[in-house]
Design goal:
There is one protein chain. By secondary structure, the protein is an alpha/beta fold. Helix content is 46%, strand content 14%. The chain has four domains: 4-169, Nucleotidyltransferase, domain 5 (2-Layer Sandwich), CATH 3.30.420.10; 263-340 and 435-478 and 669-719, Rossmann fold; 480-666, no CATH class; 722-937, P-loop containing nucleotide triphosphate hydrolases (Rossmann fold).
Length: 938
């Protein structure tokens, strides 16, 4: 099949051709017979000035285009190239709109031939690519890209990108191509005929062992290797642990880049002792020690010596992936024995092939669903795990599309299903049973403990990294949480009135095959379901109004109104009406659930095993169970009271009239952790960079219920030379927040702007209030009319924390304003970050329900809530925030604290003393700015 493809790239004066923006450069590459046969490139005279930011982006100046041909002069040559060709571009709508607008203005017809968008095609042909910008794809595929944002260079790169993609397309197995043909009709690119041609060529191809692909129930999937069994290791091989971290030890002999780090050997010995003596251990290890290797080595030796599994739990998926990508491969090369290390996440991270196949047979509901299905068709040819973190899917694991295909509790019920042998979730569970080292996350660890789900295989030894999150995550997983959206999404899945829902699709099957249920029975279901939905709407509307009318309402950091309540003690008439409404919901739901289950039981005895309907029945029953669980939680949240729990509700003041959120959390988790976690494990090692207050572990030992266990402790400072690498500045003449928030925000914004001029951006600003962040952001934007800095505000620019960090690193002169999530767990090494600004000391908001309830409990027991709860929490958070600055040995930077309380209050010394030994300077603002310039300029 000989085709002509013309790859076009344009550089322009802006983004809107209909508003007068013009082309300033065109690049083209002509592909025939799978080769670039011809190239074309020219500057284009736009008859207008090129904006400064376009000149900075492209490097194209007014001088470059001054004597260039007009578009009308080059149009005939361009049209000749495009004759009988596919128009290809990386983001076709942009380039084609400009080309067509210019063609029309020059008196020619617009191009209306077939188009292919390499962004769209890359999304489904390269589902695991890190991103879909041209430069990202070029780096990933090792395509040389010398001059990004120059049309001639971009066109050539896009041409080679297309050749790569076309080759991959024509090597896809026939079942994959057959499914893609169905999806291609919904795509923007005219790629359907190419996919059909590839399918014609491949449909008679017989897969061989070398292909590593198998066909299962019409899906082409990667043939997975047999599960590894746990290997027994002879005692002679378990040697070398004692000198592992020494200058001439096992690590140094095997790794040429190894540099011994102070404290690594101490951590390793402490972990070994804790495991051998069956005791718990607390380790505070400063940044740069290399604690991951320090605890992994003794853990792996212990696994082999004692023939026992060790679990490593992290707070973030990022750290899990770092361990598997960096530390584990290194140790596999060095250690004298084989070991199995498995990463295990919650079931919702794993693809369910049955549900995917089910969705593939249903008309897609959105364009994103079309691309998502196409992505997964390609991805299942490559993945060993089915883990959503591998795939660059729109919305990731939180997207509504992924929710339709992820593994859930139905997986347990599918043991007899013909899909079960190919279930990724089941496979990871089996792998975990044979793991020496099992790496998971805190959320799964505590979810497993709180629900006693048995998701994790049995273990007695666990290392909890990033352990400072322990209390909050335990409270969250032992708590309750329900909102209107949760319930309506479940109702949507049940689908009694939605054609894409489980019930409606099963009804079509039942009526066409069995006709056991009468039309009146179906009508009753619809009527009763309508009434149930109405009552649920009413319940949440009443909750919303109750929250609005309550005098003691307070606003949360993200702008919600929040009130605390006590379920069984609220005696107002409004609360009685709410409880009566809930009772109506529960009665209606119970009646309907019984009818739904009878429907399920009848069909499950007739639906053929392995059929589409058989799978739908599993999903329908799971949705009913999910709705039952939410109703049980609603009852607990609105009708029952646990003395150790705090209850509150939140509403969006500007949101829908039923947008109410209900929460319950344990106030004190110490007994729960002691009984359910520490008492049941032989040894728990808890480590973090911030566990001590005033050099004591007492605070965390008390709040985690560890005091009675008398754990061992180890505190190690960072090996970094903070006295040479960092300075803390506290401006003396800043406004105090107590003197007026408006003045404080103006001075804060002014200082940030001035300091950014000295540091050339590269600044992270940490807030404790989103409202203050937002006001500071808009003040900065108002002053920075010349756009000297790229100001990025968390919650004000769309994107996850990772996307915001990526944008921050991309620009040389960026200022990143962050709250909560940015105080910890982010790594911005080297020149990307030279200045950290802490706007206010990180005390928890006084109206935060859990913190408030904890302080009330301390006060009622005769204690001092500030000294026992507020201050130590804030000090630990301050240490975490400070840790964002110096991440590696060669980093250098300054920390500026704008909160005068650190100097003026009696407790301010606790924050300063929590830092490593380094210079702390308090001077007027002008002197501070001069000192920063001098320090960073050295």
């Amino acid at each position: 099949m000989s085709e002509k493809y013309v790859v076009i790239d344009t550089e322009t004066t802006g983004n809107a051709p209909k508003k007068g923006d013009k082309i300033i450069q065109i690049g083209a590459a002509v592909i025939e017979d799978n080769q670039v046969k011809q190239t074309f490139s020219t500057f284009v005279r736009p008859f207008q000035h090129i904006p400064v930011f376009i000149k900075q982006l492209t490097g194209i100046s007014n001088e470059d285009v001054k004597n260039a041909p007009s578009f009308s002069e080059i149009a005939p040559e361009l049209l000749e190239l495009l004759e009988n060709a596919y128009f290809i571009a990386h983001n076709v709508p942009f380039d084609l709109n400009f080309i067509n607008q210019e063609l029309i203005q020059a008196g020619y017809r617009p191009f209306n031939g077939p188009t292919i968008d390499t962004v769209e095609c890359a999304r489904f042909l390269y589902p695991t690519a890190p991103g879909y910008q041209l430069s990202q794809l070029a780096d990933w595929l090792n395509i040389t890209h010398d001059r990004p944002h120059q049309a001639d260079s971009d066109a050539i790169v896009t041409a080679y990108l297309w050749l790569n993609m076309k080759e991959k397309l024509f090597h896809l197995p026939a079942p994959t191509l057959k499914s893609l043909i169905s999806l291609a009709v919904y795509m923007d690119s005219d790629i359907g005929s190419l996919i059909k041609h590839a399918h014609t060529l491949n449909k008679h191809h017989t897969l061989s062992e070398e292909d590593g692909i198998e066909i299962y129930k019409g899906l082409a999937i990667k043939k997975l290797e047999p599960l590894q069994k746990k290997e027994q290791t002879s005692k002679e091989n378990i040697l070398g642990e004692k000198d592992f971290f020494s200058t001439d030890g096992m690590l140094a002999r095997s790794w040429s880049d190894y540099e011994p780090r102070q404290g690594q050997d101490q951590i390793a010995k402490a972990v070994k002792k804790a495991f051998q003596m069956r005791e718990h251990l607390l380790i505070e290890a400063g940044t740069g020690i290399g604690k991951s290797l320090s605890y992994l080595v003794p853990a792996l030796f212990y696994c082999k010596e004692a023939d026992r599994r060790v679990v490593v739990s992290t707070h973030t998926v990022n750290l899990q992936e770092q361990l598997m990508a960096k530390e584990i491969p290194l140790l596999r090369k060095i250690l004298p024995f084989h070991f199995n290390a498995v990463v295990m996440k919650g079931r919702n991270h794993y693809l369910c092939l049955r549900k995917f196949k089910q969705l593939l047979n249903t008309a897609p509901s959105t364009y994103e669903e079309v691309l998502g299905l196409a992505q997964i068709l390609t991805w299942i040819l490559e993945t060993n795990t089915g883990d959503v973190e591998e795939i660059n899917i729109a919305g990731g694991s939180s997207s509504s599309f992924w929710e339709k295909m992820m593994s859930d509790e139905t997986t347990f019920s599918e043991a007899s299903s013909s899909w079960f042998p190919k279930n990724y979730y089941n496979r990871i569970r089996e792998q975990a049973k044979h793991a020496d080292l099992l790496i998971t996350n805190h959320a799964l660890l505590f979810s497993d403990l709180s629900k006693d789900s048995g998701f994790l295989p049995s273990y007695k030894n666990v290392i909890v990294d990033e352990a400072h999150h322990l209390e909050d995550l335990a409270a969250k997983n032992l708590g309750l949480e329900v909102n209107y959206l949760d319930l309506t999404q479940i109702f949507h899945k049940l689908g009694l009135m939605d054609k894409t829902g489980y019930f409606q699709r099963l009804m079509v099957y039942e009526q066409s095959v069995h006709q056991h249920f009468s039309s009146s029975w179906y009508q009753y279901r619809e009527d009763h379901f309508t009434l149930l939905k109405y009552e649920v709407d009413e319940l949440f509307r009443m909750l919303y109004q109750f929250c609005m009318k309550t005098v003691q309402t307070k606003q949360t950091d993200v702008g919600r109104i929040s009130i605390r309540y006590i379920p069984s003690i609220e005696l107002s008439s409004d609360w009685q009406v709410i409880q009566d409404s809930l009772k109506r919901v529960l009665v209606l739901f119970e009646g309907e659930a019984n009818e739904w289950l009878s429907f399920y039981q009848h069909l499950s005895s007739h639906a053929p095993s392995g059929s589409l309907e058989y799978g739908l029945l599993y999903d329908f029953k799971a949705a009913v169970k999910e709705a039952e669980d939410v109703c049980d939680q609603l009852f607990a949240l609105l009708m029952e009271k646990d003395e150790n729990y705090v209850y509150w509700m939140e509403i969006d003041k500007k949101g829908a009239a039923n947008a109410a959120y209900l929460y319950a959390r344990p106030v004190d988790v110490s007994d729960l952790l002691a009984d359910r976690f520490f008492a049941k494990k032989d040894s728990v090692v808890l480590t973090s960079a911030a566990l001590t207050v005033e050099n004591s572990f007492t605070y965390v030992m008390e709040k985690w219920g560890l005091v009675d266990f008398a754990p061992s402790v180890l505190q190690l400072p960072s090996p970094f030379e903070y006295d040479k690498k960092a300075k803390v500045f506290i401006p003396e003449d800043m406004a105090a927040i107590k003197d007026g928030e408006k003045e404080f925000i103006i001075q804060t914004a002014e200082f940030i702007y001035q300091a950014a001029s000295v540091t050339e951006g590269k600044m992270l600003v940490l807030f404790t209030s989103f409202d203050m962040l937002k006001k500071t952001y808009y003040q900065l934007r108002q002053w920075d009319e010349a756009s000297n800095f790229v100001v990025i505000g968390q919650g004000l620019k769309s994107g996850s924390r990772l996307k915001l960090l990526k944008a921050f690193k991309q620009y040389d002169n960026a200022i990143l304003l962050g709250t909560n999530a940015f105080w910890e767990g982010i790594d911005i090494p080297g020149q990307d970050l030279s200045c950290l600004v802490i706007v206010r000391l990180p005390f928890s908001p006084p109206n935060e329900p859990v913190a408030q309830a904890r302080m009330e409990k301390i006060k009622s027991a005769g204690g001092n809530p500030f000294r026992e709860v507020s201050l130590p929490q804030a000090v630990l958070r301050f240490k975490q925030g400070f840790g964002r600055l110096i991440r590696h040995q060669n980093d250098k930077g300054v920390v500026i604290v704008l909160d005068k309380r650190i100097l003026q209050s009696k407790y301010g010394m606790h924050f300063i003393q929590s830092l490593p030994k380094l210079p702390v300077v308090h001077k007027p603002v002008d002197s501070v700015l001069n000192d920063i310039a001098a320090f960073l300029g050295d």
